[in-house]
Design brief:
alpha/beta, six-stranded parallel β-sheet, two-stranded antiparallel sheet, 13 helices, 8 strands, globular, binds nicotinamide-adenine-dinucleotide
Length: 358
């Protein structure tokens, strides 16, 4: 959306999250937890980030009620139920998530049924910490919903915590954030504020990710990319997502593909599909990327970042494409270009082979 704002009508929802940003800001965890009035925090992480979660939580002393380190991608319902039970048994009055979207997702699953406040300390660029969106994996299908109870109350963005995220994961996670921004720019319920944030998010990510991949220890680039991820999270929260997110949910939930890597591969193809139906969004994306054409610009950025470019390299089989296209067209949703089985099948096929989206 651009041109005269005065001639437009739109709705903008602001989400009340307190953000504490900056290198070393994780030292403010105790005072931020106090601010929430919490005295018994359950600390959540994935198994791999358990030690780092313990290190972050050390400053909390007796405010730690316990640890639960079994967060998993897409939040399987049985893991969520275990975590809810542990939170109840320990008498937890808050959840602190130390990790990426999987850990935040587990905190949200607990909050959904208990209303416990979530304090998120993100260690990837997923953007989930800024959204009231939750996901649960049940019977091989990913169910998502929106609920104000799951929106974290406080987010501490400390670029230092990203230093351990390997270059390849950083690149994929950064493109996951980029996807939130691109789809927000052409969302059916977009608005000038969200578009402004989304465009700035694309700019920050496009500038910083190549440097993060070149030198994962560059704190300034980590800070810039985390800022981009924050804006991406706000974009995801404030505008409805379309074809790209639908395809990625299908591929992650029903075919077990890794979340961020799948987002990275699908994005240039979803952008290509919508390019002519969402010209202004594509121009803004291209301008923020510093290129002439958004879909090929996204693809070329991913080439530079050394990302995998083909779904077949993530383990998808060619024989899965028909079912994936069918699942992704089962229920209607808004998208700039009209959606149909053949078109979606073609997008999936191009992403399967990793073709340049000309
Ligand atoms: P993730 O949280 O699963 O993390 C990926 C891997 O990286 C994990 O093994 C984790 O332990 C490790 N890791 C995390 N931070 C690290 C660090 N700093 N250093 C080293 N290793 C680190 O991956 P993700 O992509 O952040 O999150 C994916 C999940 O988030 C999916 O389930 C997705 O659906 C969800 N998500 C939800 C939203 C939302 O708004 N609800 C938005 C984006 C993603």
């Amino acid at each position: 959306m651009s041109g005269s704002i005065g001639a437009q009508s739109f709705v903008y929802n602001a989400f009340p999250v307190r953000v504490v940003f900056g290198t070393g800001s994780v030292a403010r965890l105790p005072e931020e937890l106090d601010r929430l009035g919490a005295k018994r925090a359950l600390i959540l992480s994935t198994p791999g980030r358990s030690a780092s979660a313990k290190k972050v939580a050390a400053s909390l002393g007796a405010r730690v009620a316990g640890f639960f380190d079994r967060a998993q991608m897409h939040t399987p319902l049985e893991v969520a139920e275990d975590a809810r039970r542990v939170a109840k048994e320990l008498g937890a009055d808050a959840c602190v998530t130390v990790g990426g979207g999987s850990t935040i997702g587990l905190g949200k699953a607990i909050a959904l049924t208990s209303s416990l406040p979530v304090l998120a300390v993100p260690t990837t660029y997923s953007g989930s910490e800024m959204t009231p969106i939750y996901g649960l994996l049940e019977g091989g299908m990913k169910r998502t919903g929106r609920d104000a109870r799951v929106l974290p109350k406080t987010v501490i963005y400390d670029p230092e915590l990203l230093l351990g995220l390997p270059a390849a994961n950083s690149a994929a996670s950064g493109m996951n954030a980029m996807a939130h921004c691109v789809e927000a720019l052409y969302a059916h319920d977009g608005n000038p504020i969200t578009s402004m944030l989304a465009e700035e998010g694309i700019r920050a990510l496009a500038k910083s990710l190549p440097e993060v991949v070149r030198n994962p220890d560059n704190l300034e680039a980590r800070g810039d990319s985390l800022y981009g991820a924050w804006l991406a999270g706000v974009s995801l929260a404030s505008a409805g997502m379309a074809l790209h997110h639908k395809l990625c949910h299908t591929l992650g939930g029903s075919f077990g593909l890794p979340h961020a890597e799948t987002h990275a591969i699908v994005l240039p193809h979803a952008a290509r599909y919508n390019r002519d139906a969402a010209r202004e969004a594509m121009q803004r994306t291209a301008s923020a990327l510093g290129v002439d054409d958004a879909p090929t610009g996204l693809y070329d950025l991913e080439l530079r970042l050394g990302l995998k470019l083909a779904l077949k390299d993530l383990g998808l089989k060619e024989s899965d494409l028909d079912r994936a296209a069918k699942l992704a067209t089962e229920s209607p949703y808004p998208n700039p270009a009209p959606l149909g089985y053949a078109g979606i099948r073609a997008v999936l096929e191009a992403a399967f082979h990793g073709r340049r989206p000309l």
